[in-house]
Amino acid sequence: MDLKRLRYFVTVARRRSFVKAAEELHISQPPLSQRIQELEMEVGAKLIDRDSRPLSLTAAGQLLYDQAVELLQRAEAMTASMQRMLSSQRPTFTFGVVPANFHGSFATIIRLFRQALPLMTVRLLELNSLEQIDALREGRIDAGISRVDIQAEGVHRIVLRHEPMVAALPSDHPLANQEEVMSLEDIRDEPFLIYTSHPRPSLADHVLSQLSKRGVELTNTQEVDQYDSALIMIAAGCGVSIVPSSARLVAVPDVTYRPLAELITSPIVLCHRQDDRSTEIEALYFVIARFLAERGHEVPQELLRHRDELARAES
Question: Is the pTM of this model over 0.90?
């Protein structure tokens, strides 16, 4: 069975649209539709209900989709393994990271990871949480550190911890130096900067959801494309925002961070391909579990179990 046809079919099934799938695959719609028809003739069954909106899979289509996803992932893993074996260069492990100053002590994790695998070259690729999913499926990254917990087929996710968030204010703002505990109500009517970081959902949607759950409806929101732009505007006195507390590790002139009375958190999510059982992923699990434990954070059970299994195997 032709892998290209399977890849086309999986993309149409995932996007639920020939138009969107054609855009993602960078081909025109007629040849895409023709390849799907050829696949249907090959398997002898209708795979897609073209009359539904959005498109839906038939029973045969769902069966083929489940197996095709696994087959394509194995093919990509095999190709990557062969490339590593045949390459004269050092093996490379690529992390996807959110393009903002929210990484906290991620540099320490990378250092520990490199110590565990000293022959490994580590690279970083800036991608937002949604972009990391496609990058994992396409093999452009090996693991991602995300800020939004997005369920996606073929991608395994572990929420490492829920990081408290703080208010970011201009340093000359009246609230910046008050001794009283700061509440969300204090910034309800302030110009509130949202760093949307398309495509969405992004951290902005998570923040707005957290506020809405607490009955805080902002009256004056302003969207900016990136977190760095929001910081510039905050420093210039144009508004306030809410950011993960690790943002305080990077000093920014004229921006003050204050804790909030209400507990608002941001998830830190490790994601990788569902079927990845490589030595690199095993080492990453072990390193992150050690990192969290040494800093007094609760270690997710999956990482803890994996760490204990490795420790027993080494003893």
Answer: no
